[in-house]
Amino acid sequence: MSRIYNPSGGYRRLHSFNFATIIHLGTISFCKRYLPWKDDPLGKTFGQMIGASRSGKQNIIEGSERAKTSSETEIKLTDVAKASLTELQGDLEDYLVQKGSIPWSVRHPDHQALLSITLDEFEYSDDLLHDYWTYLMRQKAKFDPWLEDRDDIAAANALIVLIQRTTGLLGRQLAKLEGASIETGGIREKMTTARLEARAEPAAPPCPECGAAMKKRTSSRGPFWGCGAYPSCKGVRKIEGEEKTTP
């Protein structure tokens, strides 16, 4: 494990990302079916809704990847993803009102049904991309009775419910990232700590067999100096001041 870099990537295992991807695909379908060009001649609503759904998905990806060197950037991009999905929700609410409807009550049977659907955990082999999209489309199919198979009112409401679930997950994700950042610090703090720790370690002596620089190693009997050219050379030295323990 790196002493400097943060864990990064792995976003395909996040339910927040998988919900955001389902929302993006559902929004594209919704806009193509229910926002015809004659009702949106400049394409602004169409483009803004798809753009907001894409931003929700893509910022999770970028934040996860940028986490390696910047916890601050990961937090900011995760927050952008959350804000973009909230913006999309506003457009969907407006659509419903313009159609003479309003969002479902939390006690509406369809709202409750959508809340009860869970995502499976993503498992993959050495064929990551194929495995992921096979998995994702299987998860999306759970919501297609609302997103694809009914009318525009059901689709808009279903997207709103999924957005609310996703922003809730992102909110908890942000709280977790904040706690981790406070506890472990940023990359500069980690670099400083690693440098100080490296300076505190004793200088490596030359190998008594071949003269190469040695490396500190650990066995069941405790730490020792081992030749840096191992396994070509098996020279060892005792580390002065550290007693070996009997197993």
**Euclidean distance between termini CA atoms:** 26 Å
* Rg estimate, integer Å: 27 Å
Q: Element order, helices and strands?
A: HHHHHHHHEEE
Number of domains: 2
Mean pLDDT: 87
Instruction: Determine the fraction of residues in helical runs and give it as a percent range.
Output: 55-70%
Count of separate DSSP helical elements: 8
Contiguous uncertain segments of 5+ residues:
243-247
Largest sheet: 3 strands, antiparallel
Strand order of the largest sheet: 1-2-3
Number of strands: 3
Task: Produce a short descriptive summary.
With 247 residues, the chain is mostly helical. It contains 8 helices and 3 strands.
Please give a structural write-up:
The protein is mostly helical. Helices cover 58% and strands 6% of the residues. The chain has helices at residues 15-34, 44-66, 71-98, 109-116, 128-141, 144-147, 152-184, 187-200, and strands spanning 214-219, 222-227, 236-237. Strands 1-2-3 form a 3-stranded antiparallel β-sheet, with no helix packed on it. Strand 1 and strand 2 form a beta hairpin. The longest helix has 33 residues, at 152-184.
Write the layout of secondary structure elements.
Elements: H1 15-34, H2 44-66, H3 71-98, H4 109-116, H5 128-141, H6 144-147, H7 152-184, H8 187-200, E1 214-219, E2 222-227, E3 236-237
Antiparallel strand pairs: 1-2, 2-3
Please name the defining characteristics of this protein.
3-stranded antiparallel beta sheet; mainly alpha; disordered C terminus; 247 residues; 2 domains
